[in-house]
Amino acid sequence: MHTRPLHSFASSSFRYFSLICLWLLVWWAARLLEYQPYISLWYPPAGLSLATFILIGRRGFLPILAATLCAGMWMYLEQSQPPPLGTQLWNSLILGSAHTLAYAIGGFYFHATIGKWELHQAPQRVLSFLSIIILTTLLGTWSGLTGFYLIGGMSADNIASSWLLWWIGDLAGALVLTPFFILVLSRIWDYDSSWLRPLTVKRSHMPLWQHLWHRKLFIMIAIVGLVITSDYYYNHPAVAYFIFFVSLPQMWIVFTESLERTLVSLAIISLVIALWFGFYGVDEHALTYQFALCVIAANAYFGLSVPSLLQQNRDLEQQTRIDNLTQVASRAHFFKLAERQLQGRRDSDFPLALVVFDLDAFKAINDQYGHLVGDQALVLAAQTIRALIRQSDLLGRFGGDEFLLLLHDQDLQQAHETVDRLRQSLPAVATPKGSVQLYASFGIVEISHNETLQDALQRADSALLQAKRKGRNQVVS
Ligand SMILES: Nc1nc2c(ncn2[C@@H]2O[C@H](COP(=O)(O)OP(=O)(O)OP(=O)(O)O)[C@@H](O)[C@H]2O)c(=O)[nH]1
């Protein structure tokens, strides 16, 4: 019979115990910032519960239920005339189950639908993530209020007037903090969060204002302080709307810092907003601050997918530049670089020679020895020629067994000599039946002034045709 090792049991018990403590800590923080009975500016336990279910699935059920049960009992401890212990336990169980079930459904649904992210799917995944958070917090609000109604803690009128505020508080907590808690839990307990990988691309291509993370954070905190202090003194709704400007430094962080720093900055800024708000008690404008928190977080998550898409674009662009097989420039990239050289010639005059060459009887190599040997021949020919030309010359694959060469600062005569040397240096390719010497035919033109690349290519192609007609293994210029 398989028995669970004692140390594994002890370590998971410790994890669950510390999860319960963490949950109670963030619940306590939310209660400190309550601005109406049961309603605080933002509700971090919503984010922690959802993050737990997303990361560890059904194993999160007992610790979250236990934490909510403790929270319920804690509330009774503060009452001067609490009901009997049995009623306390029963009521706490109803409230705890309402919260736990709602966030468990959201977390399980996330697991079932998100799966592994691919890089290009990042924006869609962020959208699914936001939708799940919106629906889960709505469900959590509904079930929580129903729980309070069932235990006689809130009247129907009370519920009707407070459900929106309750929901927005939960939404702000879950939206801002779920990804942060996912990061924290996966780091300290080594849970798998590899599905966040598409958002964790290295931002090494974004040197703009990097390494100023503390200053960016300071600007955000300063904006929060300024806005809430002004709100307190002027007490005008328009002042509170300035809190939305926090999204500017936040987006700066998103585009120039790591995923971790983005999530930490969101957590810090939400805490700072809640603390300043609590300090001054600008309760009338609570909704503005709550909506701002939601919008700033949602913006940041969408923003996070932008660097990953940029990175993907750069990778794809890199792939289109290089010919996969021979590792020389692709046809499109060759033309792009050649056009640049032609333009450069307008300022300083130097000759340019264009060469088109094609392996001779290549079809026969393919037919006799197979396409793998054919591929090997193409690679060998390209590598040999690239090793013999100068850094300033350009080699590209036109397609099939045809290549392009742009010889920098060489007139027709010099190019002819160079190319003849290349022709004689072509290697032999190893086949199962012994090695086979490679041959090629070359057509060369000197690109005249005011001639387009396409016209020069046509002339070089005709020269190549002549070389083939003359019996192959020739250079025609
Ligand atoms: N192994 C391999 N073969 C390729 C590749 N691309 C094209 N080919 C083959 O290359 C051959 C090109 O033959 P051609 O250039 O038309 O004819 P050839 O036998 O070289 O004859 P000449 O050019 O007239 O000397 C065709 O059989 C193509 O199928 C490739 O990437 N790998």
Report the top-level CATH class of the largest domain: Mainly Alpha
What percent strand? 5-15%
Poorly predicted ranges (pLDDT <50, ≥5 residues)?
none
Number of β-strand runs: 9
What percentage of residues falls in helices of 4 or more residues?
A: 55-70%
Structure description:
The chain is an alpha+beta fold and 477 residues long. The chain has three domains: 1-199, Arp2/3 complex 21 kDa subunit ARPC3; 208-321, no CATH class; 331-476, Alpha-Beta Plaits (2-Layer Sandwich). 67% of the residues lie in helices and 9% in strands. The protein contains 16 helices and nine strands. The chain has helices spanning 6-32, 44-56, 61-77, 85-114, 122-150, 156-189, 213-234, 237-240, 247-256, 259-280, 286-321, 331-347, 362-369, 371-388, 412-425, 453-469; strands at 34-36, 39-40, 352-359, 394-399, 402-408, 428-431, 434-437, 440-446, 475-476. It has a five-stranded mixed β-sheet, with helices on both faces. It has a two-stranded antiparallel sheet with strand order 1-2. The longest helix has 36 residues, at 286-321. The protein is elongated. The model has no long low-confidence stretch (mean pLDDT 89). Guanosine-5'-triphosphate (GTP) is lined by residues 325, 358-364, 366, 371, 374-375, 378, 400-401, 468, 472.
Short description:
With 477 residues, the protein is an alpha+beta fold. The chain is 67% helix and 9% strand.
Q: Which keywords apply here?
A:
Arp2/3 complex 21 kDa subunit ARPC3; five-stranded mixed sheet; two-stranded antiparallel sheet; Alpha-Beta Plaits; 477 residues; binds guanosine-5'-triphosphate; 16 helices; 3 domains; alpha+beta; elongated
